[in-house]
Every structure is written in C-alpha cells, then in structure tokens.
C-alpha cells in the first residue's frame, strides 16, 4: 500500500469523519449521477428514434430506387434488362417494380391528394417490411415494435399477404337493394392510416381515385376514375407518408395511367443496407443514363443531418449538468481543505510532501466522480430498459411505428459518457488539490 493511499484512508475516509457525511459531497455525487443518467437516457431515445426512422424509411423507399428521366417510365421484364444488370454488379436480395403517380382520392369527407403507388403484389413484401406496416385497424392498440425484428413472424406475414392479395381484381358476392345476390369484380386499395382518418373511411368502404389522365366521352374530355375497396391501412409511423400514400396493384395502375407495360421505377433491397450509398455510386457509374439511382440516405440526408445536430446539441447541454456537478466537487474539496487544515499541517510536519497531499485530494475528487458516474450509468441503463420494454409512457397515435418510445443503447456512447464524466471530475480536482499541497504547515499549526 502506497503512502498516499494509507494517508487517504487514515485521515479522509474514516467512517466517522466529518467529510464522509458532508452534504456537499453527497450533492456532488448526486449531480454527477443525474447528469450521466440524463445523458444516457436522452441519447438512447435519440438513437432509438433514428434507428426506428431508418427502418421505416428503408421499408417505404427500399435501399436503392431506380428512376429514369422519361415521363412515362421504362419497360420492365422480370427476367432481363436493367434488373439483371443490377444483380450482376451489386449483392441484391430482391428487386420489385413499381409505378408512382399523383391523384385525387375521394371518400366520405372532402377529397384529398394522394401519391398512388402501384406495387407488384407477389414481390413487394420481398423488398419492404409490409408485414408490420399493413394493418386492418388504424393504430392497433399495443402494437409492439419488436415484432418488426422478427423477420419470420408467420402470423404477420400471412396477414399481410391476405391484404395484398385483395389488391388484385377478384370476385365477391354483393347483395343489391332488392335482396338478390350477384358476383361483382372488386379491386382493392391500401391507404395511409392518417389519410383514412381524413377521408373518414374504414375497412370495406369504397373510395374513388381520379387521375390526371383524360379519356374521350360523348360529353368531352373527362378525367379517368376508378372505384376501389379499402382492404387495409398503411402505417409507417411517418406522418408525411401516412397522410398521402396509397397502394394499388401495379397492373391496375398501368391501365389507369395508360402506361402499357412500363413502370416508374425499381425498388432494390440490398444484402447490406448500410452500403446503399456506396453501391448507388457503383451502379450509376456502370449503368449509364437515362437510369438514375437514389439511395435511401440520399432521399433523407437532410433529415438525418438535423437528427445528428440535435444529438450533439443535446449532449453539450447535458454535459453542462456534469460540469455543474464538477463545480460542486471543487466546493466540497475547498471546504475539506479548510476543515482539514490542521491535519494537513501535521502530515507535512511529519514529512508528507506536496506531491503526496496533492494526490490525496486528487484521489478523493476522482472517487466522488467515479461513484457518481457508476451510479448514473446503472440508473440510466435501468431506465432505458424499463422505458423500452414497459408501457410506462403513452405514445400519441402515429408518432412511431410501434407503441413504445424506441430505446437503443450504444455501448460506445455509454463508455464515452463515463470517460468524459470521470475526466471532468478529475480536472476540477486540480485546483483545490494544489491549494491543499501549497498549505504552509507553520500557518496551519500556529494557533495550536
């Protein structure tokens, strides 16, 4: 045992020492613990929100999207052309074609603008997590986001497939006003849950899609329109999408917008979503115009830049709490120097060096910081677990894809918070420890 450790335990860590019960020390530990706890919880919420948003956006847009400059899209064959070229250049999990057009949708309430996406019913689920996003009730109660992580949740997948199958033209029995039963051909539509509320429509209600395309009638040019039966709701948790998106079968969309066999673009699901930007550049270089490649990062770059900026600003603000706690540590050590003035003088008279006294107070201040940091880490991790796994805080409908606040703890962030917290506590001990080391033993003992 070193001399400094012996002196620290003998004179400053005795269970009946005045300092061990000091209110200032307790407040310093609490201050550090509160700062570390708040920082871990806040950054975990931001991480969870960012992760949740990325998953939802990748589910809506795919990892890479292919467009062209031409207004009427490009021809698509599943066994040749652009899809085959893409699969040979980058590692692809799945490719699905789509059409995308603007339209007016009419329900019980006033009409709304909508972005009609024609999807390939058989391939769309391979490129997007529709198993979680398709619902038969708007804002289903207690929909757990952990279901999203289970890629083989057969119940969800089967439910989504049944909804998608209804997008294709199919026969249903209908009872007319006279009570007669007859078969009618029905075409389904999936609409965003927010838009469904605005239109005041529910499952099995009818809506009408009015496209900008015109047709010649005896009364002149009229917009092309078609009635659809609402078979499901699309709920991504992103307001901008749930308010405008609607999905129909790609074959119906091609007829409605007179696209023949053309499509608006391709949705590509990669084996490694994090490399979407890198693969996009490779594809753009090897496959020339008129094809344009856009990654999900490109489409939402500004949004994630804002989130990163908010995380930095939040971290700076919450680190100020730890700095304030560090000021309390300075106060507590200065009070300790005053209280132990005589003891320090006696130690120096017995041969203790300035370096030894300096290290004693460094040990004491750093110990306070370590204790506060450890308590804060434990409380922060417990709080993150409880918030993320139990329905403690009610989430307003449509804010997230799930019903709980998304929490995602990054180990490196927790370690960085702990390291910076201890470093701050160490730095603030330098001034009072130097003051104690420079104490003149003659002055400390002159009144004795």
Question: Which parts are unreliable, with pLDDT below 50 for 5 consecutive residues or more?
Answer: 3-8, 10-21
Could you tell me the strand content as a percent range? 15-25%
Overall outline: elongated
Number of helical runs? 18
How far do the termini sit from each other? 31 Å
Strand order of the largest sheet: 3-4-11-8-10-9
- What structural category characterises the helix and strand content? alpha+beta
Number of strands: 14
Radius of gyration, rounded? 33 Å
What is the total number of structural domains? 2
Q: Considering DSSP H and I runs of 4 or more, what fraction of the residues is helical? A: 40-55%
Query: Mean pLDDT, nearest integer?
Result: 77
Structural description of this entry:
- The chain folds into 2 domains: 193 residues, no CATH class; 219 residues, no CATH class.
- The chain starts with a helix and ends with a helix.
- A hairpin with a 2-residue loop joins strand 9 and strand 10.
- It has 18 helices and 14 strands.
- The N terminus is likely disordered.
- It is elongated, with a radius of gyration of 33 Å.
- The protein is of the alpha+beta class and 448 residues long.
- Helix 13 packs across helix 15.
């Amino acid at each position: 045992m070193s001399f400094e450790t012996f002196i620290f335990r003998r004179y400053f860590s005795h269970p009946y020492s005045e300092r061990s019960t000091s209110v200032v020390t307790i407040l310093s530990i609490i201050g550090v613990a509160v700062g570390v706890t708040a920082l871990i919880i806040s950054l975990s919420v931001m991480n969870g929100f960012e992760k949740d948003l990325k998953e939802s956006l990748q589910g809506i847009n795919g990892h890479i999207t292919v467009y062209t400059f031409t207004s009427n899209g490009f021809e698509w064959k599943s066994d040749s052309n652009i899809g085959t070229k893409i699969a040979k250049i980058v590692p692809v999990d799945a490719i699905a074609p789509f059409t995308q057009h603007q339209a007016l949708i009419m329900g019980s309430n006033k009409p709304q603008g909508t972005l009609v996406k024609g999807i390939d019913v058989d391939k769309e689920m391979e490129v997007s997590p529709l198993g979680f996003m398709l619902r038969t009730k708007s804002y289903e109660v207690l929909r757990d986001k952990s279901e999203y992580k289970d890629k083989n949740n057969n119940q969800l997948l089967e439910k989504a497939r049944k909804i998608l199958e209804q997008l294709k033209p199919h026969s249903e029995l209908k009872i007319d006003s006279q009570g007669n039963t007859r078969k009618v051909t029905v075409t389904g539509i999936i609409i965003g849950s927010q838009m469904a509320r605005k239109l005041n429509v529910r499952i099995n209600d009818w809506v009408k899609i009015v496209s900008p395309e015109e047709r010649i009638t005896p009364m002149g040019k009229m917009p092309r329109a078609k009635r659809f039966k609402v078979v499901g709701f699309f709920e991504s948790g992103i307001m901008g999408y749930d308010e405008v998106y609607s999905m129909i079968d790609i074959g119906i969309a091609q007829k409605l917008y007179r696209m023949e066999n053309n499509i608006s673009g391709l949705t590509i699901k990669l084996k490694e979503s994090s490399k979407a930007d890198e693969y996009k550049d490779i594809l753009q270089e090897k496959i020339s115009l008129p094809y344009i490649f856009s990654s999900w990062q490109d489409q939402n770059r500004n949004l994630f830049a804002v989130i990163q900026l908010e995380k930095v600003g939040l971290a700076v603000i919450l680190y100020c709490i730890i700095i304030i706690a560090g000021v309390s540590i300075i106060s507590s050590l200065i009070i300790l120097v005053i209280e132990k003035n005589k003891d320090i003088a006696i130690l120096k008279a017995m041969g203790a060096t300035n370096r030894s006294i300096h290290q004693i107070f460094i040990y004491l201040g750093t110990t306070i910081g370590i204790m506060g940091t450890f308590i804060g880490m434990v409380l922060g991790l417990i709080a993150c677990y409880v918030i993320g796994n139990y329905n403690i805080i009610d989430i307003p409908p449509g804010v997230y894809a799930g019903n709980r606040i998304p929490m995602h703890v990054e180990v490196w962030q927790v370690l960085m918070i702990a390291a910076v917290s201890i470093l701050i506590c160490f730095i603030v001990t330098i001034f009072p420890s130097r003051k104690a080391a420079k104490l003149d033993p003659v002055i400390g003992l002159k009144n004795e």
